[in-house]
Amino acid sequence: MSQSFASPSLYAHALFDRFVASQTCKEVQQNFAELCHHLQLDSQDYHHFYNKLKEKLNYWKAKELWQKIDKRASHPDYEQGKPCAKTKCLVLGAGPCGLRTAVELALLGAQVVVLEKRTSFSRNNVLHLWPYTIRDLRNLGAKKFYGRFCSGSLDHISIRQLQLILLKLVLLLGVEVHTGVNFKGLLEPQASGSTGWRALVHPESHPAASYQFDVFISAGGGRFVPDGFKIKELRGKLAIGITANFTNRRTAAETQVAEISGVARIYNQKFFQQLHTEMGIDLENIVYYKDDTHYFVMTAKKNSLLKKGVIKQDSSDAEQLLAQANVDQEALLQYAYDAAQFSTSHKLPDLEFALNHVGKPDVAMFDFTCMHRAEYASLVRERRGKKLLIGLVGDCLVEPFWPLGTGIARGFLAAFDTAWMVRNWGKGVTHLQVLAERESVYQLLSQTTPENTSKNYPAYSIDPSTRYPNVNLSSIKPKQVRRKRRSTETDSLRRMVDLLSWCQKHTAWCERVQVKDLSQSWRSGLALCALIQHFRPKLIDMSSLDENDAVHNNQLAFDILQREFGIEPIMSAGDMASSKEIDQLSVVLYLTQVHNVFTEAPLPKVPATDLGSSELCYFCHQQLYVLERGSAEGKFFHRSCFICQQCGTTLRQGGYTFYPDTGRFYCEEHSEPVEEKGEEGELQQADLSTGVQVWTISELIPLCINVPILFNMLH
């Protein structure tokens, strides 16, 4: 105990104050661990942790927080933590939506573990909050953790501060949060039945690797969507966004500068014309918020960026247009600086860029021409008699449309909806019913605005009927949820045989390599190096490798695959070389990534004189010549064979539905085939698509800022 405190209780009070005031992720975790150690509390005793903490921390500041948490926990929906007392949940991602979901799962009584690959919270960008989210966070004690939270008329908060608030809250509720852990995939239950569903993580020795769960919630961001989920893409004309964060010194002069909640060209043409005339900057809209930083976000016109030298060369491909090599970073900084100065009438003194997590000016340019939305929000997998409920929340469910500030509002709504789904799961509701009800609610999410959700904010709970007026929880029937017929053992065996054959085929050229299996044959590292040289001969030279130096060989291969293709090693090179038994499943998962990288590379061009060297048609299995070849979903076929497998109608690119489990293609009219049943399978929503609408995002943005309902048309 510190000598500066007269009693253990006073020291506990000081530790609690330090925990509450922590301003980094690392500080929060360290101060929480020290508080638990001092109070002799086991933070992994999730069932009793919160109540024991209240008993041992008799401190008036803490009691104010307990009152808010207890009021929330006493809601009838939670049934005193009984519905999910036997439920174990893994939440991927410690962003605001992942942590908000974890809060609700903990209140339902579940054991909750959160995995986050980052070790720090460094996102300065500011989030717009709808009225209900402000009330929700206040009721959970947000102002106790962050005194500036939505003071006065403020309706926004930085992502970093919101994460810190929610991190502190989940820790107090007994949730385990592990940072610096990379999620690599799901591990199926073993054939012996000794284990349930687990996560493949890196580092593989991390305690989270042994955690077994029956609910998996992905809040890993828009770029991570678990296998089995189908993503819809909304395409529009080019739309380029720029975000910029400047240091907020909180001086009197800075305080007096008015925020810009959303200025669009259509409503203030004079402002944008002056900006263009005086500064050469051509924008569609601009937003300015004050929080930890001075935060600006704007939509810039391409021609303006080209003329100002921000973009070096024009391109019709958005990815190439905004590629790092095609952007002059200094010109981008000047563009953002000038826009910020002009829009605030040069009243922000001594503007300096805030720094991002790598110590560089926090300015980013991004393309939001395409937006993505998961076609369904949940599914159930069953392997060897053990079921896993999987749900999506956050950006991997629906990408936010920043001009409307929908990210956190819809993200929290989805978190509540997901918690309600897990509650039903824990209470033993049939799996088809759980999925059908979740999808019935999900249909409403993209249509939500502050105007069409319930105004009775005090009544909001995880029960969807408290938030969505006239919600129909049975708009999708259980019979519409189809069971993907799958023989797990046969399917897994087939995949492994195919992978082994592929490896043997592409290493056969090397006499020193003999691939006989998917475990021991890879110990020396030569097989992996041979694969790399076959596909990328410039990256490696097999002749220089010593078969007896397994550590060097494996390290070389691991380094190349990680540097060139982003594939992280499954274990250290030393472990690979010295382990008595190499885990086959880990090797399979790793080699599958290698296979995908090399097989997804562009196919070599076939000489015009060689028209018979391609594969067979996917449908008719007859010889397929290059000049008559079509492709979809990685399959190659005669264009005349690309027909609906039910009605025979000729299919067109973008106008079909593909079911990977059966390998069949259907037209949009027959996108829901007859339900198939099997003993074990994957429960997934039927294709509920009603067609594709393409809108011009850049044209809708100005309208959306002041007429939010228009954005519903995008979905």
Automatic annotation (TrEMBL):
Calponin-homology (CH) domain location is 493-599
Q: Which InterPro entries match?
A: CH_dom (IPR001715), CH_dom_sf (IPR036872), F-actin_Monoox_Mical (IPR050540), FAD-bd (IPR002938), FAD/NAD-bd_sf (IPR036188), Rossman_Mical (IPR057494), Znf_LIM (IPR001781)
Catalyses which reaction(s): NADPH + O2 + H(+) = H2O2 + NADP(+); L-methionyl-[F-actin] + NADPH + O2 + H(+) = L-methionyl-(R)-S-oxide-[F-actin] + NADP(+) + H2O
Coiled-coil-forming residues are: none
Give, as one word, the top-level EC class.
Answer: oxidoreductase
Q: Which cofactor does it need?
A: FAD
Q: Please tell me whether the keyword Cell membrane is annotated for this protein.
A: no
GO MF assignments: actin binding; F-actin monooxygenase activity; FAD binding; metal ion binding; NAD(P)H oxidase H2O2-forming activity
Which keywords does the record carry?
A: Actin-binding, Coiled coil, Cytoplasm, FAD, Flavoprotein, LIM domain, Metal-binding, Monooxygenase, NADP, Oxidoreductase, Zinc
Question: Might you give the EC number(s) for this enzyme?
Answer: 1.14.13.225, 1.6.3.1
* Protein's cellular compartments: Cytoplasm; Endosome membrane; Midbody
Q: Which residues form the LIM zinc-binding domain?
A: 615-677
**Which cellular component terms (GO) are annotated to the entry?**
endosome membrane; midbody
In the record, the note on similarity to other proteins reads: Belongs to the Mical family.
Extract the PANTHER family matched here.
Answer: [F-ACTIN]-MONOOXYGENASE MICAL1, CALPONIN HOMOLOGY DOMAIN-CONTAINING PROTEIN DDB_G0272472-RELATED
Q: By what name is this protein known?
A: Molecule interacting with CasL protein 1
